[in-house]
Amino acid sequence: MKINGVPYRSVWVDQTDQRTVCIFDQTRLPFALEILRLSSSEQVAHAIVTMQVRGAPLIGAVAAYGLALALSADASDEAMEREASMLAATRPTAINLRWAIDRMLQKLRPVRPEDRVATAYSEAGLICDEDVAQNEAIGRHGLELIRAIKNRKQERERINILTHCNAGWIATVDWGTALAPIYMAHDEGLDVHVWVDETRPRNQGAALTAWELGSHGVSHTVIVDNAGGHLMQHGQVDIVIVGTDRVTANGDVANKIGTYLKALAARDNGLPFWVALPSTTIDWRVQNGLTEIPIEERSPLEVTTVTGRTAAGHLETVRITPDHSTAANPAFDVTPARLVTGLITERGCCDASGPGLQSLFPATTRL
């Protein structure tokens, strides 16, 4: 995608220093566009833990490069396995992270240590290229859903889409998952408007999704997290499209905290609730999302404080709760498959169910 007319991916290797991987510091957006230069696996791990880089597909891609950086320092079997375990443990909920590390190890274990660095960079690059292709395909399939809504509307009526958290190109290598169909609809000339949930406590919607959409010229409005149901009740939402960090083999969906409530509101109002994902986000080992998906518990400071830009242009963090109050911060929730209208994947759309997923991804094609 483009920033001020310049095309970017969300992760790339520095062309002047092949041992440096570049990402955007997402904790600085939307107020500052800063590029982080990562030159060690420890720096990659720190960026993932602190959410300088985030989004399930992007975390996996950056972690793959993190392993390549680790091998640049020590390509032995022992070091490779140790560094892989360290990177895989940085965040527990998104399955793409573990998938990318497992894929890298499968590729690297048979390779001689002296050849591992080049192989690692090559494989990480393939992971990135495949992510871009998958997300572009997700966009094409999701675009058909938006076109169908347009065909049911009057000519001058806009299409209102609600999304939660950030599942755009800054959360993937490029294009995004939930936002890819929206970008394509906008580029096709369809009159789309996006309701952007703020997504407390880290405000990924208000900060990142709004920044992305605005940079691309897509009409959008930021709303508080609890406004979505009200808008649905008053006919101001046509479809809900969200991303996901893990989908179980039977179609349960783990996504940013608050997604479950959007699905409940959509069901009560008879609205379609779609989830966009690449197949790398499917965890075929898990059947019951409520009991088997680990939910990351993050720092209470993300709840008790908020960071923003002052009138003077300075970034400051302030406390918004009483000093004596504690806070809980589960980062994700699970939406049962029964509340999901369907899944948008790179191979097409399907029901959120075991048979639905298997119709697109037969067992023989799974990695």
From TrEMBL:
Gene3D superfamilies documented for this protein: translation initiation factor eif-2b, domain 1, Translation initiation factor eif-2b, domain 2
Residues annotated as the enzyme's active site: D245 (proton donor)
Enzyme Commission code(s) on record: 5.3.1.23
Pathway named in the protein's UniProt entry: Amino-acid biosynthesis; L-methionine biosynthesis via salvage pathway; L-methionine from S-methyl-5-thio-alpha-D-ribose 1-phosphate: step 1/6
A GO term, aspect molecular function: S-methyl-5-thioribose-1-phosphate isomerase activity
Alphabetical list of InterPro entries matching this protein: IF-2B-related, IF-M1Pi, IF_2B-like_C, Initiation_fac_2B_a/b/d, M1Pi_N, NagB/RpiA_transferase-like
Keywords, comma-separated and alphabetical: Amino-acid biosynthesis, Isomerase, Methionine biosynthesis
Gene Ontology biological-process entries: L-methionine salvage from methylthioadenosine
The keyword Nucleotide-binding is assigned to this record: no
First-tier enzyme category under EC: isomerase
Superkingdom assignment: Bacteria
Protein residues bound to substrate: R54, G55, A56, R91, Q204, N255, K256
Recorded catalytic activity of this chain's protein: 5-deoxy-alpha-D-ribose 1-phosphate = 5-deoxy-D-ribulose 1-phosphate; 5-(methylsulfanyl)-alpha-D-ribose 1-phosphate = 5-(methylsulfanyl)-D-ribulose 1-phosphate
Residues annotated as site: Transition state stabilizer: C165
Function, in words: Catalyzes the interconversion of methylthioribose-1-phosphate (MTR-1-P) into methylthioribulose-1-phosphate (MTRu-1-P). Also catalyzes the interconversion of 5-deoxyribose 1-phosphate and 5-deoxyribulose 1-phosphate. Part of a bifunctional DHAP-shunt salvage pathway for SAM by-products.
UniProt family annotation: Belongs to the EIF-2B alpha/beta/delta subunits family. MtnA subfamily.
Protein name per UniProt: Methylthioribose-1-phosphate isomerase
